[in-house]
Amino acid sequence: MGKAYVIAHPKVINMDKFKTDYASKVDSTIAAFGGKFLVRTPDKLATEGEQGTLTVVIEFESKEKAMGWYNSDAHQQIVGHRRSNTDEKSTFVIAEESSTMK
Question: What is the pTM (predicted TM-score) of this model?
Answer without folding.
Answer: 0.89
